[in-house]
Amino acid sequence: MYVRRNISWDIIFRYAWRNLLFFTFWAGAVFSVYYFLGWTFIDIPFQPLSVIGIAVAFYIGFKNSQSYDRFWEGRKIWGGIVNYSRTWANNVLCFVDDTDTTKKKLIYRHLAWINALRIQLRQPTPFSLRENPSVEALFDKHGERNPVCDDLDQFLEPAEIADLQTRKNVATHLVKLQGRHLKELLDKGRITEFDKQVFHHNLEELYNLQGMCERIKNTPFPRQYAYFSTLFCWIFILLLPFGLLDVFENELAEVAKGFHAWFVFLMIPFSVLISWIFVTMEKVGSNSEDPFEGRINDVPMSALCRTIEIDLRDMLDEKDLPEKLQPQDHILY
């Protein structure tokens, strides 16, 4: 999640430089053919092109709205995980009539669960977005998108770690282990039947929140919106220089007066600017489709996991607490 109020030009340039080069080359090529080769017939009326532009803008606007909904739902889900994590720790400390070691084990296993869920959600899928190499290099440098499972070692016993190596869904199995542990505590009289029901309601909510995350993760943004939004945007961009030729050559000819011969050259920077605006609007939606990929606009799951860890370990009255995660290049992961 980008946390700076204004996006830095370094980030903007990382995303835009390849497209800017292409837009400049394409507009320059169209101008050269029109002006130097005398192919004046290639210009097209701007009116139908403006209709296409309006339609594309509406289509992109709808896509961006739905993409943001996916991001915001993901953020609300993780807000629920934060709340139920605190509830779980509070219930453990208040209901379990056993040693501090047992309470710590239940709370630490929960910390393993949130980190396992984070790791699972960060794994790439066949429909994961791939950016240009300069953007990918930034994320790879930060090293937060696909972290290894070593994060679980500090929360679980070696026997549990070994058992998890063969599990297909580690987060699901950890919640199951919590349920088994509660059954053992009930059999030993360390919790009451009522306490067990409260705990299991908590575990049910954790499963629900995990399932909501997996639903977003495993359901790609409808391709008919994602694909055609990109296709229509690029059709408009490729036609744009031809329409601007008509505007600068005919409709604005009187404004240029004696400079008319080269006035049409201005269609190149205007074409680049308009193209960049449209492709940026389209990119904004694409970068919000999958909120758990660990990218610039995604849910900061690593920071949320660290916040939960600090809170729960503080509830255990531990002193050596970790520091909150800080943004890297203004990106909070």
Over the alpha carbons, how many angstroms does the gyration radius reach? 27 Å
What is the H/E string?
HHHHHHHHHHHH
Portion in beta strands: under 5%
Structural class: mainly alpha
| Total number of strands | 0
Q: What does the overall shape look like?
A: elongated
Oligomer state of the chains in this structure: single chain
Mean pLDDT: 86
Largest sheet report: none
Number of helices: 12
- What is the helix content? 55-70%
State the end-to-end CA separation: 6 Å
Low-confidence stretches: none
Instruction: Give the tally of structural domains.
Output: 1
Architecture overview:
With 333 residues, the chain is mostly helical. 70% of the residues lie in helices and 0% in strands. The chain is built from twelve helices and no strands. Helix 1 (9-35) packs across helix 8, helix 2 packs antiparallel against helix 8 (223-251) and helix 3 runs antiparallel to helix 6 (170-187). The protein starts with 8 loop residues before the first helix and ends in an 18-residue tail after the last helix.
